Amino acid sequence: MKLIIDTDPGIDDAIAIALAHALPQVDLIGMTAVFGNTHVVQSSRNARYLADLLGFDVPVAEGAALPYGEVSYAPSDYVHGPEGLGDLMTIPQIGQNDPRNAAQFLCEMAAKYAGELVICAIGPLANIADAIALDPSFVTNVKSLVIMGGAFEHAGNVSPYAEANIIHDPIAADAVFGSGMTITMVGLDATMKTLLTPTDFDDLEKAAPKIGGFIKRIADFYLGFYRSVGVIDGCPMHDALAVLACTDPEKFTFQMTGIKVTQSGDEIGATVADTTRKPVAVAMGCDAVWAVDLMKTQISGLG
Q1: Residues annotated as part of the active site
Q2: Alpha-carbon gap, residue 238 to 195, rounded angstroms
Q3: What average pLDDT does range 24-40 have in this prediction?
Q4: What is the CATH number of the domain that holds 47?
Q5: How far is CA 238 from CA 75, 126, 276, in A?
Q6: Range of the domain at 230
Q7: Above 80 in pLDDT, residue 71?
């Protein structure tokens, strides 16, 4: 599977990137960086740093710095840390970004691998919306887009209605859901049922001292945030679950419905049914034990 990860690393993004690298059926051909958990310059730096730490070399193309229609953006650094990777405060600049911006890179790769390319978008959707606007054939060239974002029947995690990746750029998200692309939405209906516990991170560290130990270190910060908001048993496997929906959709249950994104009012960022749009596969659950076990097994093999 030819895969590009559109990302804003981010602690759970780091786990997802490690998992994608470890999965034997995935050919990770690039990453695109977007604002979200961090400013976009931090996102691209973190993506390059993680690729180097994991021991692989792929292009990283930097993309959108701001949500559609906005002139500033402030990350919620109490969730992922000031630099995006927990309590790590000094993250080196490894290599350089690809000379193409994210939308150009996405469109060129979609054309090169037309009908093959899967994109896993685990941040706000501005880069995907930019690619749709840049090249209309992008919509049909991409085999499928798997989004970590949204909340359908589940309550939101930023407001009672909205999930973080969607509310950070509701205009871009609505453009993507209305584009006609083949889309899977892996939102809170699935991810909040799949928790990683402190014991899971201890197991990773024991099995893979370098990579697992790094993940445990940054995850301690993330676990602390979730304890502070009342999720005492662990942290949701948000972004890594979206990677698994790319490779093993049969382990998920889906509801098919068109989706639109509310653009104003108290419910801004809500992902709600719209029967006039092309149906999206909305993940309502998955085999959580399988997902956690597979993630741990595959990342443990990285050493």
Answers
A1: 8, 238
A2: 9
A3: 98
A4: 3.90.245.10
A5: 18, 19, 28
A6: 2-300
A7: yes
- Its pTM stands at 0.97
With 90 as the cut, is the pLDDT of residue 213 above it?
A: yes
Model pLDDT for residues 89-103, shown as the tens digit of each residue: 999 999 999 999 999
* Residue 95 near residue 52, CB atoms below 8 Å: yes
**Cis-peptide into 10, omega within 30 deg:** yes
Q: Which residues contact 60 (CB under 8 A, 6 or more apart)?
A: 30, 31, 32, 33, 44, 47, 48, 51, 95, 97, 98
E runs forming strands in the chain: 2-7, 27-33, 60-62, 118-121, 144-148, 183-186, 195-196, 235-236, 252-257, 259-261, 271-273, 280-286
Q: Over the stretch 145-184, which tens digit does the pLDDT of each residue have?
A: 999 999 999 999 999 999 999 999 999 999 999 999 999 9
The number of distinct structural domains making up the chain is 1
Q: Which residues are registered as beta bridge partners of 5? A: 31, 120
Q: How many C-beta atoms surround the C-beta of residue 282 within 10 A?
A: 26
